[in-house]
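[job 0412] stage=complex_fold ligand=zinc ion status=START
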Amino acid sequence: MPPKKWPIEQLAPTSRYRAGHRDAVSRAGHAADTTGWRRRLAQIEVDDITLALLVSAVRASGDLRDAAERCGLTVQKVYGRMAWDARFSEQLELALAEACSGGEHCGTVRGYRSGGRCAACRTAKRLDRGPRRPT
Ligand SMILES: [Zn+2]
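[job 0412] stage=complex_fold status=DONE, emitting C-alpha cells
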C-alpha cells in the first residue's frame, strides 16, 4: 500500500517549505526553525568563557574590534549575539559604557568617530545618517 499523501495545505509550514513551497507562512516557519538551530550552534561555538573574556577585554581597552579579534570573533558576530542574548548584551553594554573611547564627546557622532561604541555613541551615529532615500 503506498504511503498516504497529505494535501500540502494540511502540512506544517516547515514541511511545506521542505517540499519546495515558498509562501510567506512556509518561509516564516522555516526561518523560526532554523533560527533556533543557528542560536544553539552559536552557543556551542562561542562559550561563556569566551564571552566573559571579550567583556573583560572591552572593559580594559574600550576597543570592541580589537577585543573581538583577540577572542577569535568578528564585530558582526558580537553584535549578532547581542541581538538575542540579553544577559551578554547587558554585560557588554556596561563594559562599552565604562570604557567608551568617545571621551568628552561620548554620545555624539564625534565620540563614535573617536572609537566610542557605547549605546549613546552608536545611537548618535545611527541618527546622523540623515533621511533615508526612497526605495
Ligand atoms: Zn560613548
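The mean pLDDT is 91.
[job 0412] exit 0
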